[in-house]
Write a structure and sequence with these properties.
By secondary structure, this protein is of the alpha/beta class. The chain is built from 13 helices and 17 strands. The structure holds pyridoxal-5'-phosphate (PLP).
Length: about 400
C-alpha cells in the first residue's frame, strides 16, 4: 500500500552535483531513468574505501585485506536486505544487462531448446531483449512478445493465453517500463508464470530506484537491477536468484574467485554467490552501492515513491497545458513511476531535448534502448523526463516553461 499523505522530500543539498550551474542557471536534471545523481554519502564511502581500506578481497589474511572484505561483504548483506533478498543469492554483476545475460547464458543454454518459448514483452529495454534473441537463435527456441496496449499496459489474459501453450520456459518482463513509466503487475505475473511451470525474470532496473521492492515476497526466480540508477555508482548490478536454481546452474564466467579447486582438466565451484563472480570484484562499487542503499533506506522507499508519484502527478497536470504535447503511457500517476515520455507536435524529440538544454533542463531524446516499443507505438523517438528523489515541483515547472519556450522558438 502506498501512503496517502507523505511529506515531500527535500534532499537536493545531499547531492553535490547540484552546486553546479549552467550559464548561470541551476541544473534541472530530469534524466534519472538513464542514471541517477549520487549523494555525498556514496561518493565519500568510495573515496574512504580507496584512501583507507583498499586491498583485494577474500584472499588476504592481513588486517587491511580483512577490512576490505568486511566492507565489501557487509555491503552485500545490506544490499540484499534492502531488496528483500538473501545474502548468498545476491550476486554482483557489472550492471542489469550483465545480470540478464548471466541467466540467458548459464541457465538458458542448458534448459532452453528447440520448440521452447522465451516470453518477453514489447515494452522491454534492449537488455531484456537481445540476450533472449541470442539464446533463441542459438537453441532454436522461439522468442515471443506480450503486446502493449495503446495506453501502455500489458494484459494478464494475454499472458495466460501464451502460458497455455505449455511451451514457455521462461518469461522476462520489466518491473517498470523505462519509456512508458508503466508499473507492471509483476506479482500477479510471476504467480501465473510459476503456475504454468515456467521460470520468471524481472528486470527491476527502474523498479528498485523508485519503489519499495521485496524480492522475497515477489518470489520471481530471478530479479535483476543496476546500481547506478539507484543513487549508486556505475559498474555494479545485482542479480537475485532462487537458491536451488542458482545451485544447479553452471557458472557464467570462469576464472579466479569462482572456483573451489582447479585441476589440470576440470574445476569445482565456489559457494554462492561467489560461484557467479569470476575475477576481482568491483569492490569500491560494492561499497558505494552499500552506501546508496543506506541512503535510500534512510529516506524510506515509501517516501521516495510517494514523492515521485506526487511529482509525476504535478508534471502530468502541468504538461496537459502545453499545446501539442502528447504524453505516452498510462494516464494516471498512480499507475506509473517517475518517467514521462512525450511528443511535441511539430518538433523532433532531439530538437526538443536540444532546446530544453538551452534552458538548463536535461531530458533524454531517442529510442531509450527500446526500439521494438518505438515501432509498436509508431514513433521514431520520444523525449523523456524522469525524476529522482532530489527533484522538486520547481524542476517540473522549469520543464513546462522550457517546453513553452521551445514552441515559441519553433513558432508553433
Ligand atoms: C528497464 C531497464 N532495463 C535495463 C536497463 C539497463 O541498465 P544497465 O545499462 O545499467 O545494465 C535499463 C537502463 O536504462 C533500463 O531502464
Amino acid at each position: 500500500m502506498e501512503a496517502a499523505t507523505t511529506p515531500a522530500l527535500d534532499v537536493r543539498a545531499d547531492f553535490p552535483i547540484f552546486t553546479r550551474e549552467f550559464d548561470g542557471r541551476p541544473l534541472v536534471y530530469l534524466d534519472s531513468a538513464a542514471t541517477s545523481q549520487k549523494p555525498a554519502a556514496v561518493i565519500e564511502a568510495m573515496d574512504d574505501y580507496y584512501r583507507r581500506h583498499n586491498a583485494n578481497v577474500h584472499r588476504g589474511v592481513y588486517a587491511l585485506a580483512q577490512e576490505a572484505t568486511d566492507l565489501f561483504e557487509g555491503a552485500r548483506e545490506r544490499i540484499a536486505a534492502f531488496a528483500g533478498g538473501e545474502t548468498a543469492t545476491t550476486i554482483f554483476t557489472r550492471n542489469a544487462t550483465e545480470a540478464i545475460n548471466l541467466v540467458a547464458y548459464a541457465w538458458g543454454r542448458e534448459h532452453v531448446g528447440p520448440g521452447d518459448v522465451v516470453l518477453i514483452t514489447e515494452m522491454e529495454h534492449h537488455s531484456n531483449i537481445v540476450p533472449w534473441q541470442l539464446l533463441c537463435q542459438e537453441t532454436g527456441a522461439e522468442l515471443r512478445y506480450l503486446g502493449v496496449s495503446d495506453d501502455g499496459r500489458l494484459s494478464l489474459d494475454e499472458l495466460d493465453a501464451e502460458l497455455a501453450s505449455g511451451r514457455v520456459k521462461l518469461a522476462a518482463f520489466a518491473h517498470i517500463s523505462n519509456v512508458l513509466g508503466t508499473i507492471n503487475p509483476v506479482a500477479d505475473m510471476v504467480a501465473r508464470v510459476r503456475a504454468a511451470g515456467a521460470l520468471s525474470l524481472i528486470d527491476g532496473s527502474q523498479g528498485v530506484p523508485q519503489l519499495p521492492v521485496d524480492v522475497g515476497a515477489l518470489d520471481a526466480d530471478f530479479y535483476a537491477w543496476t546500481g547506478h540508477k539507484a543513487v549508486g555508482p556505475t559498474g555494479i548490478g545485482v542479480l537475485h536468484g532462487r537458491r536451488e536454481i542458482l545451485e544447479a546452474m553452471r557458472p557464467f564466467l570462469g576464472g579466479g574467485d569462482m572456483i573451489r579447486t582447479v585441476g589440470f582438466q576440470e574445476s569445482t565451484w565456489n559457494d554462492l554467490p561467489w560461484k557467479f563472480e569470476a575475477g576481482t570484484s568491483m569492490i569500491a562499487e560494492g561499497v558505494g552501492l552499500g552506501a546508496a542503499v543506506d541512503y535510500l533506506s534512510g529516506l524510506g522507499m515509501e517516501r521516495v515513491r510517494a514523492h515521485e508519484r506526487e511529482l509525476t502527478r504535478h508534471a502530468l497536470e502541468r504538461l496537459a497545458g502545453v499545446e501539442g504535447l502528447r504524453v505516452i503511457g498510462p494516464a494516471g500517476a498512480g499507475d506509473r513511476g517517475g518517467v514521462i515520455s512525450f511528443e511535441l507536435a511539430g518538433i523532433h524529440p532531439h530538437d526538443v531535448a536540444e532546446l530544453l538544454n538551452r534552458d538548463g533542463v536535461c531530458v533524454r531524446a531517442g529510442h531509450h534502448c527500446a526500439m521494438p516499443l518505438m515501432r509498436r507505438l509508431g514513433v521514431p523517438a520520444t523525449a523523456r523526463a524522469s525524476f529522482g528523489p532530489y527533484n522538486s515541483r520547481e524542476d517540473a515547472d522549469a520543464l513546462v516553461a522550457a517546453l513553452q519556450h521551445a514552441r515559441e522558438v519553433f513558432q508553433i
